[in-house]
Amino acid sequence: KSNMRPCQSSKPQIRGTYFSVALVKKNTNFSWLNLKGKKSCHTGVGRTAGWNIPVGLIANRTGNCDMSKFFSQSCAPGSDVDSNLCQLCVGNPENRLEKTKCLPNDKEAYYGYAGAFRCLVETGDVAFVKHTTALENTDGKNTANWAKNLKSEDYELLCPDGSRAPLSEYKTCHLAEVPAHAVVTRPERRNDVVRIISNQQELYGRGKFEPDIFQMFGSKTGRDLLFKDSTLCLTEIAE
């Protein structure tokens, strides 16, 4: 039995949860109910919004948990590189000689939330991400070459009932509502960990005193290096 306990959770939104969504381009015409044979983009195998939730829902509906037989091609970082679950993955586009294709880290360009969205932009039919992903990477918010000209109005959500909805309607059109990620520690260290993290957040959190020295919720190189880059703050979980 584990002796670890959650002590603080990250807040991507004020409510302390986020929504797992199926994101698509607006100029397509399929639905959640006829995804079979489409090209899918996942944040990574074993990750909540990008894998566990959509795979679980599809398996419950179809009786098939083998996504390599459900989707025609995918990028699901962490899969067997020779399977069709890695066919859409590209590795590091700036160094094709590196054997990084389908690795579950930022050496794979399509890894993580932004990576799965990039996969959708460049080659996929549907991306399984969180509800803020499209908004964080469109309308000039992401200045990378692949994202700088993207418009949020060109994307929408697939709803489980077979309909579609604008990005703004994620509260009623989502696959699941998910608790925010948590910092986990031993019970006897809990108070110390909460105190230290809270103090550091006051210095290096969003809008705090020392953003030029260090940023807890931003990655200057790579993505999501310490906490998710979209984290607003950490909040204490009641014992």
UniProtKB/TrEMBL annotation:
GO molecular function, one term: metal ion binding
One Pfam family cited in the UniProt record for this chain: Transferrin
Domain Transferrin-like: 1-239
Subcellular location: Secreted
Keyword tRNA processing applies: no
Classification via Gene3D superfamilies: Periplasmic binding protein-like II (3.40.190.10)
Keywords: Ion transport, Iron, Iron transport, Metal-binding, Repeat, Secreted, Transport
GO cellular component: early endosome; extracellular space; plasma membrane; recycling endosome
Predominant location category: secreted
UniProt xrefs under SMART domains: TR_FER (SM00094)
Record has DNA damage as a keyword: no
One of the GO BP terms on file: iron ion transport
Record note on quaternary structure: Monomer.
Protein's name according to its UniProt entry: Transferrin
